[in-house]
Write a structure and sequence with these properties.
This is DNA topoisomerase (ATP-hydrolyzing). Belongs to the TOP6A family. One of its GO terms (molecular function) is ATP binding. Helix content is 44%, strand content 12%. It is of the alpha/beta class. Helix 4 crosses helix 7 and helix 11 runs parallel beside helix 14. The N terminus is likely disordered.
């Protein structure tokens, strides 16, 4: 039936095709119209706010690091070293990646993870972003579609090539002069799916639109870019993830944030993100071949139970229903499983129908 629906007409640029997406955009804009400054900057910080996502709790713990204690002397030296690096960067108005900081003294730090943790701790302690510390993370995400902008140094970036994607900027806050006619942004969980869509010329077929991937669990820059696009363009943002607990969690990171970065929730989360697919109910509705379905592992089941206990699902009954369906069926599937229905099913039928007929949650 889906094939018949989409084969009748496929004028992707027509007003009719984007009717429900345009309607969704109006609803999203209306929902934020009444928001005030107070909504976003509250003195009492609660663990979860539906308009912001996961936030740092008002309760706190204190970790003491002493210079005269053998157990913490190395940590103390690492913190001092990183603070001195940050001071020099701020004083000279220059920037460095966390990788640069690590290579400043690999013997002292021991691992990249030590640097990452300390930089995040300093950022949290001072209540400023990592960019304010002049320390940036190396980007791993990719972006493509109807988008042009200027980097802080004046470099013009054009993402409209149909054959290649652009690396997400490592200085998202410095981006300016964003130009786009996109009707929506689609977050793609995995690089493999992103590349398949790129090869299938998805951005042109459903033009105008923007695609972005964080290649799995998103890095900070990919999340900042999604937030930047929402703040600037204020168009619907959809998530395309695997129908498994890991995919759900990645989508929730974009929408609600993560505990580790809760102190930067205001600049990282986009609560308007909608779940486009792959839905557990899609597996039954589309009769995805059983050979493409995988049984849930014990780890999957534990992750699913953990997700269902998170505070934001109280306001997402449809998401909750989908995950409960997965619990009952005890199966999961990757987006690539749709290729077992037809090789071009994802690009030519599944996504166009979802977007045209409002198949998001």
């Amino acid at each position: 039936m889906l094939g018949k629906q989409i084969s009748c007409t496929m004028e992707s640029g027509s007003t009719q095709f984007f009717f429900l997406i345009d309607k969704l955009r109006i609803q999203l804009l209306n929902s934020i119209e009444g928001a005030t400054e107070k909504d976003y900057f509250q003195e009492e910080i609660s663990p979860f706010d539906s308009g912001v996502g996961l936030q740092m709790s008002s309760g706190h713990s204190v970790t003491t690091v002493k210079s005269n204690c053998p157990a913490s002397v190395t940590k103390f030296a690492q913190i001092l070293k990183i603070l001195s690096v940050i001071y020099r960067l701020v004083q000279s108005n220059s920037y460095a990646t966390k990788r640069d900081v690590y290579y400043n003294n690999t013997q002292l730090f021991g691992s990249q993870r030590s640097v990452d943790t300390i930089v995040d701790d300093i950022s949290c302690m001072l209540k400023v972003s990592r960019r304010a510390l002049h320390v940036m993370a190396t980007s791993k995400g990719l972006i493509a579609g109807d988008l042009c902008y200027l980097e802080e140094d004046g470099t013009r970036i054009d993402c409209r090539s149909s054959s290649a994607a652009v690396s997400v900027s490592s200085n998202v806050s410095g981006i300016r002069n964003i130009v786009s006619s996109a009707k929506f942004v689609m977050i793609v969980e995995k690089d493999a799916t992103f590349q398949r869509l790129l090869n299938d010329d998805f951005c042109r077929k459903l033009s105008p639109c923007i695609m972005i991937t964080g290649k799995g669990v998103p890095d900070v820059n990919s999340r900042l870019m999604v937030k930047k696009l929402w703040d600037t363009l204020q168009i619907p943002i959809f998530a395309l993830v695997d129908a498994d607990p890991h995919g759900f969690e990645i989508m929730c990171i974009y929408k609600y944030g993560s505990v580790a970065m809760s102190f930067e929730a205001h600049s990282l989360t986009v609560p308007s993100v909608m779940w486009l697919g792959l839905l557990p109910s899609d597996l039954q509705r589309l009769m995805v071949p059983k050979r493409s379905l995988l049984p849930l592992t014990r780890r999957d089941e534990n992750k699913l139970n953990s997700l269902l206990k998170r505070p934001y699902f109280a306001s997402q009954p449809q998401w909750q229903k989908e995950m409960e369906l997965m619990q009952q069926s005890k199966v999961k599937a990757e987006i690539q499983s749709l290729a077992d229905i037809a090789p071009d099913f994802l690009t030519s039928i599944y996504l166009p129908n979802k977007l045209r007929f409002g198949g998001w949650l």
